[in-house]
Write a structure and sequence with these properties.
This protein is an alpha/beta fold. The chain has helices spanning about 45-55, 65-70, 165, 170-180, 200-210, 225-230, 240-245, 265-270, 290-295, 310-320, 335-345; strands spanning about 5-10, 20-25, 35-45, 95-105, 115-120, 120, 135, 145-150, 155, 190-195, 215-220, 235, 250-255, 270-280, 300-305, 330-335, 350-355. The protein has 11 helices and 17 strands.
């Protein structure tokens, strides 16, 4: 039976934790034509949730995520990830594992009961980048008991893993695989992964290793053993002198989610013709770029957000075959989302923090 109302967290505005409004009287959404209704079993916490809440995506914001998050006043009125005003209220949450419990017109009713992972990138039929939507940002997401998505975004999965473990994959792993695919990482290459203890970073370590690459990771010293267990050949402190430790022109590909002051060193250690792929900037979005380094070394800089459809399809297959494993750090009740985000910002965890509705 599908109830009329559900528990959900509504983001009311840009600002502090007080903008996260846990409710138990939110109407259960109805699937539109071509959509399915998913009962959410578990959802993941991501940087993008916090970045959106604090308005970090605005061009007026120049600091690191954790610095801006310390403020409680709304930072901007144009803090959507596309640079346009964000629509409130919004149910956030890009990661979800659950089961299909209803379908809209034109969707296959035989899919009711399927266990699914939700691809958070909702693409228009024409494939235009300008009309892509993101689950939990441009439309309501997984921080609720139920959510709707286009049927094509609900991928059937067969796995012995729990909902919590499966919900750790979608956003982080698709972002990581997208960077590796855009950079065309091949067997035998050396890949440097920043922020390797986080969700995207730890996924990138596994997925680069899966491709046969040698992985060098940057992470907190206390997390070195965990990152090595995921496949990293070497783990350096996040503030290491990269040129001194690795040598100039020693890395084929950099996979970066950190940005900030270390950016110049990342380009210095790239070999000639090397590739730099980025999908985050938690240490700060504004970096120093010497154009001479870029063009004299024939480097390629790759911004990576929107994934091709096959990225998520392949990811599901990797999970089902056990080629990548979940890394779950902690679990919180949905009503305790503020505590979960506070723990996330401390960066003491490895992998993902999950929420259960």
């Amino acid at each position: 039976m599908i109830p009329r109302t559900m528990k959900a967290v509504l983001l009311r505005n840009h600002g502090g934790y007080e903008q996260l409004d846990f409710r138990d009287d939110v109407p259960v959404p109805l699937p539109a034509a071509g959509e399915v209704l998913v009962r959410v079993g578990a959802a993941g916490v991501n940087n993008t949730d916090i970045n959106t809440r604090i308005g970090w995506y605005s061009k007026s914001v120049t600091g690191a995520t954790e610095t801006i998050a310390a403020h409680t006043e709304p930072q901007t009125d144009d803090g959507g990830w596309t640079g346009t005003p964000f629509v409130f209220p919004r149910i956030q949450g890009a990661d979800a594992c659950g089961r299909i419990v209803a379908v809209g017109a034109g969707a296959d009713a035989a899919r009711i009961g399927e266990r699914v992972l939700i691809d958070p990138v909702i693409r228009p039929p024409d494939g235009s980048l300008s009309h892509v939507q993101y689950f939990g940002a441009d439309r309501d997401g997984a921080f609720a008991e139920f959510a709707t998505v286009p049927a094509v975004n609900a991928h059937r999965i067969t796995s012995p893993l729990s909902d919590l473990e499966l919900a750790s994959f979608p956003c982080a792993c698709s972002a990581a695989e997208n960077m590796l695919e855009r950079a065309a990482v091949a067997a035998g290459e050396t890949v440097l992964v920043t922020g390797a203890s986080g969700g995207v970073g730890s996924a990138a370590v596994q997925l680069a290793k899966r491709r046969g690459a040698r992985v060098v990771a940057l992470a907190g010293t206390a997390k070195s053993a965990v990152i090595q267990s995921l496949g990293a050949a070497r783990v350096l402190a996040r503030d290491a002198d990269l040129v001194a430790e690795l040598g100039r022109e020693s890395i084929d590909v950099v996979v970066d989610v950190v940005g900030g002051s270390q950016f110049p060193a990342l380009l210095e250690v790239l070999c000639r013709g090397g590739r730099y792929a980025v999908a985050g900037a938690i240490a700060g979005p504004l970096v120093e770029l010497d154009l001479r380094t870029l063009y004299l070394k024939d480097l390629r800089l790759l911004g990576c957000t929107v994934t091709a459809p096959e990225i998520f399809t392949n990811l599901v297959r990797f999970i089902e075959r056990g080629e990548i494993r979940p890394l779950v750090s902690a679990t919180y009740r949905l009503r305790d989302i503020a505590a979960a985000q506070a723990a996330f910002l401390k960066k003491a965890h490895s992998g993902k923090i999950l929420l259960v509705p």
